[in-house]
Amino acid sequence: DVTLDPGTAQSELILSEDRKCVRHGDTRQDLPKTPERFDTCVSVLGSEGITGGRRYWEVEVGDKTGWTLGVCRESVRRKGWVTWSPGNGYWVVCLWDGGYEAWTSPLTPLPVRVQPRWVGVFLDYKAGEVSFYNMTDRSHLFTFADTFSGKLRPFFSPGINPGGTNAAPLTLCPVPAQP
């Protein structure tokens, strides 16, 4: 059950009261400038730190024109412009400028047959894998393979909202418990 951590949210982000939705607002809010808060990148972390096991969550991306999802080390840089790459502690995929990409170095374009409206993120800490799935057609999007140490956190960026074209929120969806 992933919720968003308001203490990490960049000041232009609006979180829902239940901390399940995030969207880009029109103006900066007057929020405390803490080391935990992203100051430039429109990003927010999940509340729960992950140090082992397997976790799965789904995010409704709907008709958004830009977003980024994945996991990151809790210790990632949060000030200034940040390059989202495994070398910097980010394992993420995104929709950017009309294309889907995994933020590897260099970027890996993702062949997407059906536009995802829901994206599933599966983290297997011990195996060192973060996998992404298009839950609209149940296809695999990409898997990062790495070695994890320390605490990881779910990562979300709803993207900016130029002229109202990307106003919809990212919404964390309930996932039925498996028997």
Automatic annotation (TrEMBL):
Superkingdom of this protein's organism: Eukaryota
Residues annotated as domain B30.2/SPRY: 1-177
UniProt cross-references to InterPro entries, sorted A to Z: B30.2/SPRY, B30.2/SPRY_sf, Butyrophylin_SPRY, ConA-like_dom_sf, PRY, PRY/SPRY_TRIM39, SPRY_dom, TRIM/RBCC
Cited PROSITE patterns: B302_SPRY (PS50188)
SMART domains: PRY, SPRY
Name under which the protein is recorded: E3 ubiquitin-protein ligase TRIM39-like
The species this protein was found in: Alligator sinensis
The gene coding this protein: LOC102384093
